[in-house]
Design brief:
Layout (H helix, E strand, L loop, with lengths): L8 H40 L2
């Protein structure tokens, strides 16, 4: 058993919080990318409709 990998419950809890934070950041980045794609397509519709 690797003593560095979560044998201490405190570091294991901190790793869990870190992974949750990374997960939430990833979701926020995906939402921002999707929203910016919608905004760009909307701008393209406005410009190319005429």
């Amino acid at each position: 058993m690797n003593p560095k990998l979560g044998s201490n419950p405190r570091t294991f809890k901190n790793n869990g919080l870190y992974l949750k934070l990374l997960y939430e950041i990833r979701i926020a980045q995906l939402k921002m990318i999707i929203n910016s794609n919608y905004i760009f397509s909307f701008i393209n519709l406005l410009f190319y409709r005429n």
